[in-house]
Amino acid sequence: MRVSSNAPVVISDSGDNPTAGGSGDVTNFLALMLNNTDGVSLEPPALYQCFYDPFLVQQAFSLGQGAVFDGSLGSCFDPKKSSPIQQTMQVKALKSDWDGNKVDLALI
Q1: What angle do CA 39, 93, 91 make, to 5 degrees?
Q2: Of 26, 7, 8, whose CA–CA distance to 16 is shortest?
Q3: Is the bond into 79 cis (omega within 30 degrees of 0)?
Q4: Which of 30, 33, 23, 27 has its CA nearest to residue 84?
Q5: Which of 24, 70, 81, 93 is the most buried (most CB within 10 A)?
Q6: What is the largest CA-CA distance in the chain?
Q7: pLDDT tens, position by position, 21-70
Q8: How far apart are CA 46 and CA 43, in angstroms?
Q9: Which residues, other chains included, contact 25 with Cβ-Cβ below 8 Å and sequence gap of 6+?
Q10: Buried b / exposed e across 83-105, counting CB within 10 Å, b at 16+?
Q11: Please, are residues 75 and 26 in contact by the beta-carbon 8 Å criterion?
């Protein structure tokens, strides 16, 4: 695999997709990315998308954009397949009622 220096690279754990029968909250692949020392120097930085964690989103909305906090991500619905990731996080952006679907999103 070659990393492009011109555009972001998106890596998605499509096997954990809820439309494929997954819970959308398995953390194994993200944990590997976070523990990879080569990953921290990527430019643009790596972005892992689409975790289903309504508890973390609710916490992010309570704290507000810009807040830095110790949080837990993932493994809410499928704790047999992975463990939550405990780490210091920052609320980068919040979006209420995304696309008129009554869904709240948080970029953390």
Answers
A1: 65
A2: 26
A3: no
A4: 27
A5: 24
A6: 40
A7: 788 888 988 888 888 877 767 777 777 777 889 999 999 999 999 999 99
A8: 8
A9: 16, 51, 52, 53, 74, 75, 76, 77, 78, 82
A10: ebbeeebebeebeeeeeeeeeeb
A11: yes
**Contact call for residues 16 and 26 (beta carbons, < 8 A):** yes
Q: Which two tokens stand for residue 87?
A: 């780490």
Element (H or E) spanning 69, and its range? Answer: strand 68-73
Q: What is the pLDDT of residue 80?
A: 87
What's the CA dihedral at 46, 22, 82, 37 to 10 degrees?
Answer: -10
